[in-house]
Specification:
about 525 residues; 5-stranded antiparallel sheet; 4-stranded antiparallel sheet; alpha+beta
């Protein structure tokens, strides 16, 4: 401490007698913060690298289970050509019993990777994903989406999609919705950072439509109910009885063999009972055609919508959505009654920001009330509160220098920083007030108080910074969530400590009611 005080005492004395220098530091730091803050990106939480990649394949709705399996095997072979991959397991569809059923045209491939330190570019999962993209390529008739197990589950719970961003297009007519949704997808693909852009498959399911010719059935004397009952029994099946095996009971389902009901021509040969024992072919009583019908119709608050999903790569989601919104408003003219909403991770971010807009002002107000109750001085309270904006500058600069975005963990770090910065300011102002009460001149009290309290201020900053260093340099799973908090606190401690040790003593007389504090 004696060695530290050798340069510190004349330096703090200079600032105390030259308040313009202190005000210059404050102004410069605030300007730096004001310039850098708009350049920060925004996101809900940093992307968590889980160590396992999930490749989702979306194929044609009419595909068979065998063809889905063949497609999955072809993609698996391409994935295994990447050196960082040691195994891949695929799952086609999901059972209807679970919370999230999935059809057989959807496949999920869980890619197991080597330890991150053994990659060609150690611990760079985005680089591995890019290698997988190149290896898979653009298979015809298949949409490919990259995600992670936990990330996929969270995204699915949020909006029912398997991507970070869900863009919902609301409207009435399903055909118009489909057309406009594909226009939105085309525009989204032009925005920098957009990957894995997909539109919900709302159509593409082949259906067999039988339309009864009422004039024909009237001519033959056949009822519509007779046609429907025959179709139901021959194609769908009818319960004809039960079989008992001990306490177990099995229903007997009777229907036509598959070769007699697998094609429109064979179905058209079904015999419908007529009056007086006559038998008429179904083709003579109804038109049989194959149509492509809707695969799904989704609603929210009684409104139909289609979801366009996408992931955001090498960019923060906040600026991506801002640019995408502007582009859609410029290049698209939606029909009346149609609107676009933005969900997924962006929706969570907006909700968190709305809460912070309430929590942070209330926190600062309570802190000011407690300071005023403790010091009974408005000026002393304002002097200590001056720590907050300069501490924020350090956190903002820390995020900018490390290439991180403003997120919920970073916002929590700013709130934690408030307490540390204000605690140091209280320690210094309290001691300087005590010296003035003892009859020490304000100038002398400012210098002496700063020199006597440099130890606790530095100890508080140093112990907090050292405690957070493991979070700052950690590289394990989950470290991406912790790093913004540690960056903000450590960066803010640097600027708040400079303020506490140099600027507060210089401004103490300006914020004192008079030269002597009674």
């Amino acid at each position: 401490m004696r060695l530290l005080l050798v340069p510190y005492k004349p330096l703090v004395g200079f600032f105390v007698h030259s308040r313009w220098a202190a005000m210059t530091i404050v102004t410069v730091m605030l300007l730096i913060g004001a310039v850098i803050f708009p350049q920060l990106g925004s996101e809900f939480t940093p992307k968590l690298n889980e160590g396992t990649i999930v490749v989702r394949l979306t194929m044609a709705p009419s595909i068979s289970i065998e063809e889905s399996k063949n497609n999955a095997l072809r993609i698996e072979r391409r994935i295994l050509t990447v050196p960082e991959v040691i195994g891949v397991t695929s799952r086609i569809g999901r059972g209807e019993v679970g919370a999230h059923a999935d059809p057989i045209n959807s496949a999920e491939m869980f890619v197991k990777l080597k330890h991150p330190s053994d990659w060609e570019k150690p611990r760079d999962q985005d680089w591995v994903v890019e290698k997988l993209r190149k290896a898979i390529g653009d298979p015809p008739g298949i949409l490919v989406n990259f995600t992670q197990p936990i990330e996929m589950s969270i995204d699915e719970l949020l909006e029912g999609v398997r991507a970070e961003l869900a863009i919902k297009l609301f409207g009435e007519d399903l055909g118009t919705l489909k057309t406009e949704a594909h226009k939105v997808a085309v525009i989204i693909r032009t925005v920098r950072g957009a990957t894995d852009v997909q539109v919900d498959q709302v159509s593409g399911t082949p259906q067999l439509m039988l339309q009864v010719n009422r004039q024909a059935i009237a001519r033959y004397g056949v009822k519509v109910q007779d046609v429907q009952d025959t179709l139901k029994a021959s194609i769908g099946g009818r319960i004809a009885g039960e079989i008992f095996e001990g306490v177990r009971r099995f229903e007997i389902l009777v229907r036509y063999p598959e070769h007699a009901r697998s094609t429109p021509e064979q179905i058209g040969k079904l015999l419908i009972p007529g009056p007086h024992g006559a038998r008429i072919q179904l083709a003579d009583l109804a038109s049989i055609t194959i149509v492509v019908g809707p695969r799904q119709i989704t609603r929210e608050k009684s409104q139909r919508f289609i979801t366009i999903q996408c992931n955001v790569q090498n960019r923060d989601i906040g600026s991506f959505v801002a640019e995408a919104k502007k582009t859609i408003e410029t290049e698209m003219n939606l029909p009346p009654g149609y609107l676009v909403t933005w969900g997924g991770q962006f929706k969570l971010q907006q909700q968190a920001n709305a809460r912070f807009r309430i929590v942070i002002p209330v926190t600062l107000l309570l802190i000011f009330v407690f300071l005023f109750a403790s010091f009974s001085s408005l000026k002393n309270s304002l002097l200590i509160m001056l720590n907050i904006p300069l501490a924020l500058v350090g956190g903002v600069v820390g995020l900018w220098m490390s290439g991180q975005n403003l997120s919920v963990p970073a916002s929590v770090g700013f709130i934690a920083l408030f307490g540390i910065a204000l605690g140091n300011g209280m320690v210094l102002v309290t001691y300087m007030n005590q010296l003035v009460r003892d009859g020490v001149d304000v100038f002398e009290a400012s210098v002496k108080g700063a020199c006597m309290r440099v130890r606790p201020v530095l100890m508080t900053a140093a112990t907090t910074a050292l405690g957070l260093l493991p979070l700052l340099f950690a590289r394990g799973t989950g470290s991406e969530i912790q790093r913004p908090l540690a960056t903000v606190v450590i960066g803010g401690l640097v600027t708040s400590t400079i303020l506490t040790l140099l600027v507060l003593p210089a401004l103490y007389r300006l914020f004192s009611s008079r030269d002597r504090v009674e």
